[in-house]
């Protein structure tokens, strides 16, 4: 079996395509023949050796949390899924030809493997940070770094719940944000004043880690109304850093419902071959993403 792995922490050049033993479905798990794997910022953060308590790493290590594919092994005690089912979900070492999933759901009709692979961690994260920041229907949520996968999900889920959203992104993604129902502005000089002109900010999310925590606290008036998933220094300013996943099965259930009702769509900006994992990490780290990046296996 081919998989992507790394034997030392470092830049994207440490990623290698290696031959490895196939994993097998233990009790409560399923194995899939991977068709596509999601590329998430947490993947390259782990590869770089950033201290992420929810994801301890023992080298050498595989890469990837999200995947979509076809079930080919069902572990003891698993019900409701059969060999041959098309599923998407979260597991470990998903940049591979086979991967074991710990949480999964059947893919909604009409969704490709490439599209499905981009949803699991993204939707879980979006649901979690909306809950943690405490924003309510009728209030306004500011999303810094809104055009990526998590931002795209946050904007759509928040709008579905009756929350007004303001999103910041690069100039090229302004129309994209507006298409998702957000009030949009760029993040270059003068962005704080432009946000103020768009309306009162009740809560804010930092999804890009671009050094804007102080400004988000200023705009909300309270560090407890700001949550970051990207700035490990946020707690020094009294802001919560959210890095521990909630219930992935519940997130997948909600994702299936939203997708099936046409309320959630995250485009795939680019699909890469498994051999292009390093390039996918380089592009993901550079930001400016519109939607998701995935690997096709």
From TrEMBL:
The keyword Iron-sulfur does not apply. It is found in: Cytoplasm. GO terms for molecular function: oxidoreductase activity; RNA binding; zinc ion binding. InterPro entries: ADH-like_N (IPR013154), ER (IPR020843), GroES-like_sf (IPR011032), NAD(P)-bd_dom_sf (IPR036291), Quin_OxRdtase/zeta-crystal_CS (IPR002364), Zinc-ADH_QOR/CCCR (IPR051603). Residues 10-295 form the Enoyl reductase (ER) domain. The keyword Plastid does not apply. Its main location: cytoplasm. Keywords: Cytoplasm, NADP, RNA-binding. GO terms for cellular component: cytoplasm. Homotetramer. This is NADPH:quinone reductase. It comes from Streptomyces albireticuli.
């Amino acid at each position: 079996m081919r998989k992507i792995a790394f034997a030392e922490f470092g830049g994207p050049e440490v990623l290698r395509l290696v031959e490895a033993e196939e994993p097998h479905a233990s009790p409560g798990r399923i194995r899939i023949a991977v068709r596509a794997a999601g590329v998430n910022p947490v993947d390259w953060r782990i590869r770089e050796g950033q201290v992420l308590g929810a994801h301890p790493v023992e080298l050498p290590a595989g890469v990837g949390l999200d995947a979509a594919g076809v079930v080919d092994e069902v572990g003891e005690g698993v019900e409701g899924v059969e060999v041959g089912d098309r599923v998407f979900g979260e597991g470990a070492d998903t940049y591979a030809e086979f991967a074991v999933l710990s949480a999964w759901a059947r893919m909604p009709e009409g969704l490709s493997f490439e599209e499905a692979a981009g949803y699991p961690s993204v939707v879980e994260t979006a649901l979690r940070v909306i809950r943690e920041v405490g924003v309510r229907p009728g209030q306004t949520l500011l999303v810094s770094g809104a055009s990526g996968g998590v931002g795209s999900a946050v904007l759509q889920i928040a709008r579905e719940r009756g929350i007004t959203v303001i999103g910041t992104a690069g100039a090229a993604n302004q129309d994209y944000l507006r298409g998702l129902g957000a009030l949009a502005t760029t993040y270059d000089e003068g962005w704080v004043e432009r946000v103020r002109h768009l309306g009162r900010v009740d809560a804010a999310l930092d999804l890009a880690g671009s050094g804007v925590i102080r400004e988000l606290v200023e705009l909300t008036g309270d560090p407890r109304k700001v949550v970051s998933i990207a700035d490990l220094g946020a707690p020094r300013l009294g802001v919560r850093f959210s890095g521990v996943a909630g219930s992935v099965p519940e997130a997948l259930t909600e994702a299936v419902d939203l997708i099936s009702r046409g309320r959630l769509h995250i485009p795939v900006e680019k699909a890469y071959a498994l051999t292009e994992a390093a390039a996918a990490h380089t592009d993901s780290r550079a930001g400016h993403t519109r939607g998701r990046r995935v690997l096709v296996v």
